[in-house]
Amino acid sequence: MGLKVFIVEDQFIEAHDLQIILETAGHSVSGIAKSVPAALDLLQSDRPDIVLLDIFLKGNQTGVDLAPVLTTANIPFIYISANSDPLTFEAAKTTRPDGFLIKPFRQRDILVALDIAAYRHRYANAHGLRHQDAVPDKLIEVRKRDTSIEFQQIIGSSPKLLQALDLASQVAPTDTSVLILGETGVGKEGIAKAIHHLSKRKHKPLIKVNCAAIPPNLIESELFGHERGAFSGAMEKRIGKFEQAQGGTIFLDEIGEMPLETQTKLLRVIQEKELERIGGRTTIKLDIRFITATNRNLYKEVSAGRFRIDLYYRINVFSITLAPLRDRTEDIPTLVNHFLSKHAGLPGRSIKKISPQAMETLVRYFWPGNVRELENIIERQVILTSSELISSFDLPVDENMPEDNLANSLKLKSTSDSEKQLILVALTKSNGKVSGKGGAAEMLNIPAPTLVSKMKKLGINWRFVVG
Ligand SMILES: Nc1ncnc2c1ncn2[C@@H]1O[C@H](COP(=O)(O)OP(=O)(O)OP(=O)(O)O)[C@@H](O)[C@H]1O
Questions:
Q1: pTM score, two decimals?
Q2: Is Cytoplasm found in the keyword set (predicted)?
Q3: Share of the chain above pLDDT 70, in %
Q4: Please, what are the domains in the chain?
Q5: CA–CA separation, 23 vs 114, rounded Å?
Q6: What is the 188 CA–ligand 1 centroid distance (Å)?
Q7: Disulfide-capable partner of 441 in 234, 348, 432, 448 (CB 3.0 to 4.6 Å)?
Q8: Runs of H (alpha helix) within 198-345
Q9: Is the CB of 193 under 6 A from ligand 1?
Q10: What is the value of ipTM here, to two decimals?
């Protein structure tokens, strides 16, 4: 069904062109305004389904000024702007648009952007969300866990995990592109697999590509394939990953690492659903579903100019965020027991139990490597422990823990093991300096004398220089 679109654009010709594109595609145009005041007037008399919003308009006010009004009225909007400089983008980003198109754009781009925005808006409304990436608190009260076999491999029942599984089971049967976000080792690949296996494409291939693992000069031939003799070294024809996924799903992991040039080509594949092999002339039609994942903040990557904004909106039709393990500690005991029984089968090892104190250390640890790290630590301890009971874990000091997390973590963590670990991290980062600027006490946000007494209490060796 066509959408009722309102155009806010000060250039007459551009507004007129947009109107023709929209009406030819079956949408209607409820009005055209050249300035923010004119837009406000027209919006009061006729409510559109969606607004196409230019940033620089007639008068003092910009599209960015109109955005909060639209958000309050729950009207989705897409920015259309000739200006893609980082500052403009930063300002526009804070208003949480439903899309962003950079002029000049093709007819098809605008129609696809409208489709995506309308879909996201319908979805957000149906779930009581204002924008798709707002924290979906309401969804946290998840109906019930999907018990399909595909989800049985994913252990845990914290509200945050259940919310992600709920989203996955809702989006799985559709052909919508899904973006899975979360730190390394949180289980993004597991979710991607579950989505594929719950979809109508389950009998077709699921092809995974780790964009970070392929050297930039090889990634295109890996994805698109090449004809024999396409470049020196191309002795044989090669079928690329997109073609291998024909009829099924392609899972592009670490999409944030994809080189810009390849991003441009990927955008075309996603939009047109077709490709040519490198060195080939035949256009190959594709029928694939896209699932992407990243542990980067893609919005930041866009504003830093490392990720194409149009690709960002194209892959981010439906996003699922997996919370880090430290934010769903309820899942830790179940995961621990799962990995214990998995690894207890190692030769010469019997089933082990974990003492409550040892479990407590695990629950309080920061888990920078998330579930993957948890599994590794359990496996290691099963090997190292010859008795039936694991009574302690030797958890690593994570020197990469971000400084602003240190202070928070110290407040949260009370067992001496974790406290000691955090203090050691801070001291390592400060090169042993305890007080003063850049010292461990400042990082931990506690007075230096308190830190010194904690260090004494915890037996932290006095080999550091007091600054
Ligand atoms: N909820 C879970 N239940 C059981 N195993 C899990 C769970 N989450 C993750 N794992 C396991 O942890 C490991 C890491 O998971 P996965 O590869 O899916 O993470 P990822 O987020 O894709 O990581 P990366 O960003 O590094 O690719 C895998 O061995 C996976 O089976």
A1: 0.67
A2: no
A3: 86
A4: 4-126 (3.40.50.2300), 137-323 (3.40.50.300), 326-390 (1.10.8.60), 403-457 (1.10.10)
A5: 13
A6: 6
A7: 448
A8: 216-224, 241-244, 260-272, 298-303, 309-315, 332-343
A9: no
A10: 0.98
